[in-house]
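Suppose you are handed a protein chain with no further information: no name, no annotation, nothing but its sequence. What can you learn? This example shows the usual starting point.
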Amino acid sequence: MVDIIIKPRYRYNYSTLKRQDLPEGRRYVNEVGDKLPSVTTILSHSKDKSGLVEWTNRVGKEEAERIRDSAAKVGTAMHSFIESHVKLRPVPYAKKFYQIKGYRMGSGLIETFFEDLEEVWGSEVMVYKHGSYAGTIDLSGVFRGEPSIIDFKQSNKMKKREWIDDYFIQLAAYADAHNHQFDTNIRQGVVLMASQDGFFKDFVVCGREFDSYLDKWRQKLRIYITDVVSKES
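A reasonable first move is to predict its three-dimensional structure. Written in structure tokens, the prediction is:
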């Protein structure tokens, strides 16, 4: 039973962009028709996929697809539960086991961490940087006294901090877009993670460490522009 209610404070006029899932990756179309690559598409371009390939070879392609599909469904259900709670909307009835699992994980994140959430500016909101990139933020607001970009993640087993650099880079990218779009000064990223074996953990990056991940994001963006954008133009 979730009894923590935080009413959103709509400080910013977030854009509604059209999403297109194309063979070359996700694109966001803004009000002037620019097709901007998503943050996840840019990160995927230079990501080391050797570990994923080894895992797929080890468990088999069919089993790997089944595990990924199951995890995606649970994650979608978890995000849906949290978004409904934040926006004070009724939660759809859970008919499938993956929905029950996702709802339980979402409820656990809310009960564990939302007392530290002092303001909610937006849930599942889109941000973009003109002529560069775009993305969807799980939650923006004030977490433990600091303006923050917050992401909800689920995993079969709880991850270690050193395994989730890409999550921090993703948050830095969203913060940079938010800062440019709304003249904010967000320098804190928060990952709230739920594992399917019943654990909940927060990972916070801020200050100089946050700036280092912003530098890593800009490096990855430059690589993407060199490898992809320059060839498309």
